[in-house]
Amino acid sequence: MCHKLNDLMQIALKEAKKGFLREEVPIGAVLATINGQVIAKAHNQTISLNDPTAHAEILVLRKGGEFFKNYRLNNTILVATVEPCLMCMGAAINARISKLIFGAQELKTGAAGSLYNLAGDHRLNHSIDVIPGIMADECRVLMRDFFRNRR
């Protein structure tokens, strides 16, 4: 499964790089089946869509709902280059994502273990298995370079 995770993260990184080129915060996401079939991919588009909810994770969840014709995305994997925020984790929990894989930790806003741990909060009606740190260095460097260029 580790090889598949790297392949999925590579796709997410390509999406993040698209966002980088469009001056969006370079976060990419992929939604896949447990077997690794890619259902959707996206990058942040909050600026281009004038939509504060247009995070990469939200966009792939929306596409996944359309693909499955259901708001519940059971037996799927959400892959993100950066640890999801509260909004994205809330959406992933409501969608019943099975597994979350992410690259770089987000110490200021991360909701999958860094600042908050929604994925493992057993007070909620669903929990998500989390695998952090997949290709973390590549994901972190992309974010660092983006914010360095903006200063």
Secondary-structure topology with pairs:
Layout: H1 2-21, E1 28-33, E2 38-43, H2 56-68, E3 76-82, H3 86-95, E4 99-104, E5 129-131, H4 136-150
Parallel strand pairs: 3-4, 4-5
Antiparallel strand pairs: 1-2, 1-3
Key attributes of the depicted protein:
38% helix, five-stranded mixed beta sheet, single chain, 4 helices, alpha/beta
Detailed description of the structure:
This protein has four helices and five strands; from the N terminus they run αββαβαββα. With 151 residues, it is α/β, with parallel strands linked by helices. Strands 2-1-3-4-5 form a five-stranded mixed beta sheet. The longest helix is centred in the N-terminal third of the chain and has 20 residues, at 2-21. The model has no long low-confidence stretch (mean pLDDT 95).
The termini sit apart by 39 Å
Shape: globular
Order of helices and strands: HEEHEHEEH
- Order of strands, main sheet, comes to 2-1-3-4-5
Tally the beta strands.
5
Helix content bin: 25-40%
Oligomer: single chain
Can you give the mean pLDDT?
Answer: 95
Rg value: 14 Å
Beta strand %: 15-25%
- The low-confidence parts are none
Sheet of most strands = 5 strands, mixed
Number of helices: 4
The computed structural class is: alpha/beta
Short description:
The protein has 151 residues and is an alpha/beta fold.
